[in-house]
Every structure is written in structure tokens, then in C-alpha cells.
Amino acid sequence: MRLAGAQAWERADRGGWALWRPGREACRALDADGLSAALRRLLSAGEGDPGRSRRGAALAAQARAAAAALAAVPGLLLLSASALLLFDAESNESNGSNESSGSNDEPRLRLIDFAHAFAAEESGAAGVDENASAALRSLARLLDAAAAAERA
After folding, report:
1. What CATH code would you report for 8-151?
2. For residue 151, what pLDDT is reported?
3. How far apart are CA 55 and CA 51, in angstroms?
4. How far is CA 49 from CA 23, 73, 118, in A?
5. b or e along 40-78 (b: 16 or more beta carbons within 10 Å of the residue's beta carbon)?
6. Fewer Cβ within 10 Å of end Cβ, the chain: N or C?
7. What is the pLDDT of residues 69-123, one digit of tens each?
8. Cα–Cα distances in Å, from 152 out to 24, 46, 79, 105, 149?
9. Cβ atoms of 30 and 4 closer than 8 Å
């Protein structure tokens, strides 16, 4: 598993906002510790947002659900598919609460980039794609750890 890209608006030192967007090469160079740090930073977007741990827990639950859904679809291979993590870091700050505003501010995980999805029989494989399910379970563990780190 690797981070292909990230983008978050963060509070700047002198007020205002600054864009954190590591380049492709920086993302490719991340080791396991760097990936964990990047996820923590992404979940921390919007300084002062009390929902950091909620974001991580919600995204981890969605990753586990996606892994379970893939495990229920035998005969599908996903090669190089991506998981897109989305949330609005300012939504809870702007309404002054820890609660969802009811808009489209809930964290969401979407599987994307299915250019290399195949029926298992086309590749000579059979059964469930354990690699994709394992990657999503691994992502869930990383998100849980990042969320817990934010509470500590």
C-alpha cells in the first residue's frame, strides 16, 4: 500500500490557511512511519476541529465495510485500485459544534481507478481477491491508529 497523493488546507502560522499537498515523489518515498504520519496530518486538517478521531474512526469503518464487500464478490480482481478519502475539515468548525451539520461533511471512503479490474477467470485466478481486501483492512488499522494518536 502506498499514498498516491494528499491535499489538505491547514491553519498557517501567521493566520489564514496554507495548502499541504506533498508531491508525487514525496508520497512515493514514504515508508510505513511516513504513511502513518501523513494520515495523522490529513485527519488533523482544520486545526481545532474536535472531530479528528471521529473522522479516522468513520473512515476505518468504511474501509472494513469495503473489505467485507470485496470478500463477498468472488471472481473479481482489483489491480492498482485506489481508495479516496474525503471530508470537509471546516464543516464542524464553521458551525461551532462537534456534531455534523447534516450537510455533505461526513468522512467518505470511495474505491476508484478500476482501469485494471478483471474477472478472475481472465487472469487464471479463482476465488476472492484477498490482496484488495487485505489492503483495505490494513488501511482501516492505519486510520484507527491515526485517530487514536490524535486523541492522545
Report:
1. 3.30.470.160
2. 53
3. 6
4. 25, 38, 41
5. bebbbbbeebebbbbbbbbbbebbbebbeebbeeeeebb
6. C
7. 988 888 888 877 888 888 876 665 444 444 544 455 688 999 888 777 877 766 6
8. 30, 18, 36, 24, 5
9. no
Parallel, antiparallel or unpaired: strands 17-20 and 8-11: antiparallel
C-alpha pair distances (Å), 41 with each of 76, 97, 114: 33, 21, 27
Residue with C-alpha cell 474477472? Answer: 119
> Rounded to two decimals, what is the model's pTM?
0.80
Task: Tell me the three cell numbers of residue 87.
Answer: 471530508
* pLDDT value for 100: 46
119 CA to centre of own chain: 26
Listed in sequence order, the DSSP H helices in 5-129 are 24-28, 32-43, 52-71, 91-95, 120-123
Give the Å distances, CA to CA, from 20 to 8, 57, 120, 133. 5, 22, 39, 29
